[in-house]
Amino acid sequence: MDNEQQKKSLKNNKWFRAAIPALLLHCSIGTVYCWSIFSQEIATHIGFSKGATEWAFSLAIFFLGMSAAFLGNIVEKDIHKSSLIAAICFAAGMAGTGGFIYYGGIHNGSIIALVGIYICYGLIMGIGLGTGYLSPVKTLMLWFSDRKGLATGLAVAGFGAAKAIASPIMQWMLESLGDGGIYKMFIILACVYFVMMFIGHLLLKKPDDWHEPQTSEKSKSIMTVLKTKPITNYIGIWLMFYINITCGLALLSQEKMILKCIGLAGFVGIISTVSAIFNALGRLGFSAWADKMKDRNTIYKMIFIISILLTGLVIITGGIENGFGNTILIALVLVLIMAVNAGYGGGFSNVPTLLSDHYGMSNISAIHGITLSAWAFAGLTGNQMATWIVNHFGETVEISGNLVNPTGYQTVLYVTVVLYIIALLLSMIFVKPADKTE
Q1: Per-residue confidence at 197, pLDDT binned at 50, 70, 90?
Q2: What mean pLDDT is reported for the chain?
């Protein structure tokens, strides 16, 4: 009898049926952000430039957002189907990427290998990313109805922490698997992540006391639901979410070179791990904090104000251009990097709960999915914007044996601070306060 009670208790335990499966799913798919660890190895192995292979990552983020946007209704109807799609697509995409890397090693410079990687890492994995990202979110908010921010922050923190956890493992595998370690790593990890995600799929379950709204209510179109508030309200949420991601990606894509520029080339790996931890802490901390606020949009205002102030300080002091050998300026640049990472993560974890406060829980997966299209477009614009600026402003110089462009990186900050100011104005003018609704 005791065993029966324990089984029943586990079946209705919010940690066992929501938090743990969410972490299993998000800690797996979050490894998409480990791209920088192995991108050069892929390019070298298949005989293409690093720039050519970089599009695989951009496509993965694009299809993450677009699959979330178009498959949100499937997630809304059946989390088991969507979480299984996520496990299959993510693992198949990763294994396929390994297969095309292997093919590219035999047929160096083959366009088939490059396009195959685009399709597997970009399209197929991207579909797994989008459905896997969405699947546990509504379930978490239902189980943790009194602390929705803490719940979604916990899961999305898993997505952010995945890079910090997986990066050293991937680095070790690349060094230990010998010749062809890059494709062997992908195939091994595809199996590992499929097992993790399949277990998450089996465990994930909505609370027994949650009853989906009646058909008439569920049949409302997304636009009808969004129009229950002034449409400028949703436009403001979408745009400030998009700007936060774009600015985060713009700065973080140059993080490695900025660190070399201020004389920290030897600490790039350690600082990258620490910044990933700040990303995860921002996802958990900002969203948990928002649970105690009357209006969750206050968190976005705080993120934008902190980002504006710190970016402005680095601009005024010329922190990147003048940072080499100056302890105070180095510290200021590091604080900016950590704050942007935390704010970047916090923006992700707060958006589903902010949307639920404004539009209710009935269609939250579909609305959240549409909103993640902002991530798709930011994935195509953030990195590329920063790269264009660095290529067109300033000039390359040598600092401690590293070729860097201090003026170019500094110029990126001028653009991001303007965008952060626009995002702050949007959050203040367009996004009206909303009572927290269940």
Answers
A1: very high
A2: 90
Question: How do residues 265-282 score in pLDDT, each as one tens digit?
Answer: 888 888 888 988 899 899
Q: Residue 187 — φ and ψ, nearest 5°?
A: -70, -40
426 and 355 within one domain: yes
Collapsing DSSP to helix, strand or coil, 402 comes out as strand
User: Tokens 């058909």, residue?
Assistant: 215
Q: Where are the alpha helices (DSSP H) in 144-267?
A: 148-176, 181-203, 215-218, 222-226, 231-252, 255-261
Q: What's the rounded mean pLDDT across residues 176-181?
A: 90
Per-residue burial over 74-91, b if 16 or more Cβ lie within 10 Å, else e, is: bbbeebeebbbbbbbbbb
Q: What totals of helices (H) and strands (E) does the chain contain, helices first?
A: 21, 2
* R_g of the chain computed on alpha carbons: 22
pLDDT tens-place string over residues 377-408: 998 888 889 989 998 999 999 998 888 999 99
What is the amino acid identity at position 18? A
213 inside domain: no
- Show the tokens assigned to 14: 């919010």
| 193 lies in the same domain as 339 | no
DSSP string, 319-369: HHHH-TT-HHHHHHHHHHHHHHHHHHHHHHHHHHHHHHHHH-STTHHHHHH
3-state secondary structure of 349: helix
Question: Do residues 62 and 195 lie in contact, with contact meaning Cβ atoms separated by under 8 Å?
Answer: no
CA distance 87 to 384: 30
Coil, helix or strand at residue 399 = strand
Asked whether residue 345 is assigned to any structural domain, the reply reads yes
Contacts of 266 (CB under 8 A, 6+ apart): none
What CATH number corresponds to the domain at position 59? 1.20.1250.20
**What token pair was written down for 303?**
């993120």
Residue 264 phi/psi, 5-degree rounding, is -115, 30
Owner of token pair 């009898």:
1
Q: Which residue has the tokens 């892929």?
A: 42
The answer on 125 and 193 residing in a single domain is yes
Cβ atoms of 58 and 382 within 8 Å: the answer is no
Per-residue pLDDT band at 304 (split at 50, 70, 90): very high
| Same domain membership, residue 194 and residue 157 | yes
> What integer pLDDT is reported at residue 1 of this predicted model?
44
Give pLDDT tens digits for 346-379.
Answer: 999 999 999 999 998 878 888 999 999 999 999 8
Residues 243, 159 within the same domain: no
Residue 8: per-residue pLDDT: 58
Domain boundary among 150, 182, 205: 205
- Per the structure, the count of domains in the chain is 2
3-state DSSP call for residue 230? coil
